[in-house]
Design a protein that fits this description.
The chain is built from nine helices and ten strands. The chain is α/β, with parallel strands linked by helices and 293 residues long. It has an eight-stranded parallel β-barrel, surrounded by four helices. Strands 8-9 form a two-stranded antiparallel ribbon. Bound molecules: fe (iii) ion (2 copies) and zinc ion.
Length: 293
């Protein structure tokens, strides 16, 4: 397979911002990567003209990276599904409108978004709020940035915990070509899917949503077992999903060309991605790797 795009979450931070993000990804031997446009847990954002985007893009071109495989993740605190606190939902909508412009400023084409949580309003009301929110945002945006709704673990009142809920959202969005899905291996495991049965997961995804809608895959192991609804990521091969299953996602021919992003925890405050990516690429697990830090 020659269309393997494998990378990780990488920080965007000063003084080099995007240039630094690209440098970090390259130093970890990644050929795609994902980043937040600021802190993931808040909505404070620097103007994009201060983020060394041109310098970063120059390095992307020089090093032969495919810019279309780079991904941005929206902050996880914004919640389009909240009909209980309307201020939260309004903030989510106004932030997303601005975020799409930032994503476009980076010349990135894909924005991963957690669909939201219904709080106490129920799944149906929550899904409708997400649909209306997405339409409010996308109907007024002319870019070609696509929003990839992430499959969620189903902790609390999270929406998008199965393919049917995501399909319901997609069906309600007016601009179909602007919406897709990000599949997270840890999250579907925690949501109750038999994640080891890779072919069945892919078939079910294809039947319900359509593989053409699968824009990003998050490759994470899980600390918890099937159906735990916890969302605690483990390092590659040391969780309950296991190395071989994750290799099967990374190298599955039907998932060829889709950017695959690791969001595994740091070890001793250092990113483990270089080694994790090497093991996944070579399909060879090193049982001692976690101790080499
Ligand atoms: Fe996420
Ligand atoms: Fe994820
Ligand atoms: Zn997660």
């Amino acid at each position: 397979m020659n269309n393997l795009y494998l990378g990780s979450h990488v920080n965007l931070s000063g003084p080099d911002y995007y240039l630094g993000t690209v440098k970090t990804a390259l130093s970890l031997n990644e050929n795609c990567f994902m980043f937040y446009t600021g802190a993931p847990q808040n909505t404070i954002r620097k103007p994009t003209n201060q983020l060394k985007i041109d310098e970063g893009r120059k390095l992307i071109k020089e090093s032969g990276l495919d810019e279309s495989k780079i991904v941005i993740h929206a902050p996880y605190i914004i919640n389009l599904g909240n009909t209980v606190n309307l201020k939260t939902r309004e903030l989510a909508i106004s932030f997303l409108k601005e975020e799409l412009k930032r994503v476009n400023d980076f010349h990135v084409k894909t924005l991963v978004l957690h669909p939201g949580s219904h709080v106490d309003a129920g799944v149906e009301v929550g899904l409708k709020a997400v649909i209306d929110g997405l339409n409010e945002v996308l109907d007024h945006d002319d870019s070609d940035v696509r929003i990839a709704l992430e499959t969620m673990a189903g902790k609390g009142s999270e929406l998008g915990k199965n393919f049917n809920e995501l399909k319901t959202i997609i069906d309600g969005v007016h601009k179909k070509d602007r919406i897709g899905v990000c599949l997270d291996t840890c999250h579907i495991n925690d949501a109750g899917y038999e994640v080891r049965d890779v072919d069945r997961v892919i078939d079910e995804f294809d039947k319900i949503i359509g593989l053409n809608k699968l824009l990003v895959i998050h490759i994470n192991d899980s600390i918890n077992g099937k159906g735990a609804h916890k969302d605690r990521h483990a390092n590659i091969g040391v969780g309950l999903i296991g190395f071989n299953t994750l290799v099967n996602y990374v190298h599955h021919p039907k998932l060829d060309g889709i950017p695959k992003i690791l969001e595994t925890p740091y070890i001793n405050e250092k990113p483990p991605y270089k080694k994790e990516i090497e093991m996944l690429r070579n399909k060879k697990f090193d049982p001692n790797w976690a101790y080499s830090f």
